[in-house]
# Entry
Amino acid sequence: METRIERLCMEIGLKMTGPRRAIARILSEANDHPDVDELHRLAHTLDPRISLATVYRTVRLFEQHGILERRNLGSRRARYEMSGDRDHFHLVDQESGKVIEFDEPETEILMRRVAARHGFELVSLKIELFGRKLSPEARPGGATPTVMKSPELVRTAAKSAAE
# Structure
């Protein structure tokens, strides 16, 4: 089965070699934002002949053609995700490096208002949040955190942004 990355590569005329297909497949199926070393480790399990240099060249090629985006998510290593027009946020656990990708419509609306107030039209919105996962005992009330979508929270955030 052909992945989205493979289709994009073929649409722009890139030759799809075996190693490129393997790397494209890994990136398409990734739930996180792998770095080059992680890509190489995974690609090497599919085909032991895929070298680290091949992974670097392929990632660079995909990035140059707008298929991948390089993300700096707080570590010394660049991580990669598919390019796209979908706005989203990243929550990065500074201890484990785990990345959680999520949408927050209220925040997106607020950021568009802030940009408009300063005479900008947002073309893309990417926000990285960095933190440490709290143990259940350290959470307020010991509860599992929930996403707050309170209109009051949005109004408070909008008021803060306006000041």
Summary: The chain is about 40% helix and 15% strand. The longest helix spans residues 52-64.
